[in-house]
Amino acid sequence: MTDVLILGGTGWVSGRIAQRWLDAGAAVTCLARGGRPAPAGVRLVVADRDEAGAYDECLDREWDEIVDVSSHPRHVDEAVRALDARAVHWSYVSSVSVYADADHPGADESAALAEPAEDGSPEDYARAKSAAERAVSRLGERAAISRPGLIVGPGDPTDRFGYWPARFAQAGEDAVLVPAPDGQSAQVIDVDDLADFVVAAAARGWRGVANAIAPTAPLAEVLGTVREVAGHRGPLVAAEPGWLADQGVAHWAGPRSLPLWLPSDVPGFATRDGRAYRAAGGRIRPLAETVERVVADERRRGLDRPRRAGLTRYEESALLAALAR
Fold first, then answer.
1. d(CA 146, CA 158)
2. Could you report the per-residue pLDDT of 30-57, keeping only the tens digit for each?
3. pTM higher than 0.70, yes or no?
4. Which fold has domain 3-148?
5. 130-180 pLDDT, tens per residue?
6. Where are the domains of the chain?
7. What does the CA dihedral 221, 227, 230, 234 come to, rounded to 10 degrees?
């Protein structure tokens, strides 16, 4: 039986990876702080990675597979040091944000990475992921590094993608505010496609680095698919970037934002080359299929619930009224 250690296993992505390994018949151990439930059937080791000896209970065997998704470089470095001699294969889930810049559309895995964070701080996400990758790279031919783009799907805790299916579904025949097309692009990866890839690639011993990302699509096309699946029948009201910025609307994520909307100075951000991922067996399911799953999930969770990203309905209504004046 395959012995798998998930460093995490109680979060959105790592929990799905743990479940995939369980479904494949593996014996799965999750090392986590214990504040959230692990998938049924795993062995849970409760440990705090900030504390000395966090990995002591995992030194009793050789692990066919170790998975880490942490964005804390010190955690990743210490895990590699502690478990190096006991790991046959190691999968690390990084991010396309690890690159030094987003200036060049179509860049592949050979693009320069951000300068690794030297102090072990996770505060600069790009530099933290770069430092974590550097630690994992010490494993040499035993390491597989996935660099997903925007991860989307049911259960997303960030609300970056789910904002749009929920807003279109909630609006019905009312207007929805969108950013003007203006050359905007989007790239996403379904969380279950990513989890499937991490597990299947490790099962066949894949080593290497791959941008786990769908081909680039115009943002207007992506929102059009979301709108159609969500059943929105009202008008779209497009606002120019300068006007949105003047109204205090943020890019990409967070409160009072239009998720997926990007500033003009990152033309390569949503245009990464994902051919290595697909060549390694990575799946890209149709966007409409992902959106259908997200719409159903958002309805279950509540279309009008408080969100970590996007505009509130009140904020959007005020902006629409200002545009109409």
1. 20
2. 999 988 999 999 999 999 999 999 999 9
3. yes
4. Rossmann fold (3.40.50)
5. 999 999 999 999 999 999 999 999 999 999 999 999 999 999 999 999 999
6. 3-148, 153-187+216-271+285-324
7. -170
